[in-house]
Amino acid sequence: MAKDDLSTPNEQKEYSRRDMLKMTALAGGGIALGASGFGTVLELLGNKNGEANAANQSTVPFFGNHQAGITTAHQNYGYLAAFDIDPSVHDAAKIMALFITWTRLAATLTQGKREVNSDNKELPPNDTNEARDLGAANLTITFGLGHSFFTKDGKDRFGVAAHMPKQLTAMPHIAHETLDPAISNGDLCVQVCADVQQVAFHALRNLIKEALGTANIRWMESGFLNAPKGQTPRNLFGFKDGTANVADSEDQKNVIWTGSDEPQWMRGGTYLGYRKIKMIIETWDRDSYSDQENVFGRKKNSGAPFGQRHEKDPVIMNKMPADAHVRLAHGTGKQIYRRAYSYTNGIQPQTGNLDAGLLFISYQNKPQDSFIPMLRLLGKSDALNEYTDHIATGLFAIPAGIKKNEYFAQHLFE
Amino acid sequence: MTNQKKIMFILLAALMLLPISACSSAQKSDGEKSAQTTADPVKQGTKKMQQINKNLQAALEKNDTAAIKKYGKQLNTQWLSYENGVRDRFPLQYAKIERYQQPIYAQSNLENPNAAQVKENSRALTDQLSDLLAAKETKAKPSKQMDQAVDDYLKYADEQIDQLVKTTKPFVQAVKDGDVEKAKKRYTLPRIYYERAEPIAESFGDLDPAIDARINDVETESDWSGFHEIERALWEKNSLKGQEKYADKLMADVLSLQKKAKSFKLTPKAMVAGAMELLEEAATSKITGEEERYSHTDLVDLQANVDGSKAVYQAAIPALIQGHKDLANQIDKQFQAFDKQMLKYKKSDTEYEDYTKLNKEQIREISNELSKLSKLMAQTAKIF
Which of B9-13, B177-181, B379-383 holds the top average pLDDT? Predict the structure, then answer.
């Protein structure tokens, strides 16, 4: 351990021998060490002196019954990335080794710590260091598995196809979509969110670095979404996004978390539904205020449904135009839990129009009964389609939370 | 040390000593198990190699292309079946055998193998195989090993630079003769030798830019010289008018490089860093098609960069297998995976598929294999 990574003796007392044994056990994992065998040593000692910047220091527990980053209060920045298993990998052992490494890394980074560098200065550093002084900033890391992880070209890839989550399928074709396959789907997904973008990027970057050779990055998207505390954030259309999200834990159980109809290892998990929705911003901006409200079926400022006064008032369907976005979504009678981010990516060179939109992310326990039928209906009839283009898609199984001394998807393999 | 510090130290030490990864445990090397008995797998494997090499030579005598290809491939299969044992116990001999066996394999994958080249390598291989059969296991001291590694690598680099001089001459001649077609044909061969030994050239300040700068590397076009200036004349302008002075300068610079390289001293750390530089070169300017933007022969350079870094790895094997056997094994496999993938695009000794003919997925595939190689090679610094 390099000297400059050792903190004062005072801080070391924060960690008991027992804690360290636990961490060592985790790093060792149920099976052998990570594929690469390096970068296994954690920087155990967090920075306790930076309390001045209280917001950045706040952490979200990594271990728990459900994965963090789903019902966690919406952080300001988010990355969503998908990975493909390297073509040279054919056995589950290598994947398990990666998941152990990822778990160790995620458990470390989300608590505002980082991996320690080797004493051998000829080796590359283990941690990339750009988040060193920034704290955890409510960093969450959420892992998922795509349909193609289980089967590809009709083949059971890693001997776990029999345990595929019940509602996990390849995404069906939806009307009114122009998908780019290179930025859709994938074997694995990782959602990384934090209140400081640099902290989120640092986490994802280090996950990518460790995974290379076992799982390679397929695509990566980044987004932002800001709102005053306790208020529903607005998307780039200027409307509130996520008003109907359930806050009560009993409701969340019904909408988000999977139950006994799933294989044991998948219970207490959920599914991540993803659409990259490009907004035709200039057309929208030239549309009249009243028509914009008609497209949604809600008041632009207050978020109140037509015929009501407050954002959270119940939707009255027949007060809205037949093709209003909210009416159609509400009319399915199904609920999803939205956790979207907005994105911008410069301009489109051919037209000079803005390249911007929404990284639509929703969590639900029965995507085949909610997310997908909703997409189908909206794809056919939504008034919003005139201003949007769905350009990427994905559906991922998000297993239950990871318990201390366990690793991601352990019960799928063991 | 406080108590906590002590405990932490012990734990960390234990952690680092934990037996290697899951994927490696399946590949215990043959060499670990057996003493040198008659059933010694290295001896047995080498005898099989000798037999196949004899068959290959017979095929060469008869000029039987199909048989040359068959035995060239067989040699490779046989070598792969027991090379781990050789690498663990006879690292010096290992690198030498690889040096002659691999070009044979590369040729045997071509439609029309270069028989003269195969013959030369096959003859050299005969000697190396006999050496291996007679070799005794020796374990040099680590410091000696690294000195030996540097010597071996410098020998390799010298050979490449000698070949660079040898192949630049006819290229320069064709340019001065104004023979565009001939010059185009002779362009890639010196490029291969240059790209293999580039870290050496980079050590001599102005020589690398004078020989290898791309147009965007220089401030004004009048400062530009070297291979790529002539490359543009050949492929973009299709005319060699006014190129004589560049041809002369290139020859002079290459000769100056040869002279300087003879007395060049290298530290082990710089040698390993040079291998990383080569892979970075490949991963940045070659994989993007920027290096050979007029001739589109980027894949030739790319493979040459990887060859050059492989020479460093091979030189470092004796040091690497002391405590990092698993890493050596992984690197070895990844070089194989990389070379195998590049074979898809190889057309002849000096020709690979035109860079612009590759689609995005193919380029990403190569880039991915290259990244895997780089990641592993960065870990060779563990020997320090």
Answer: B177-181
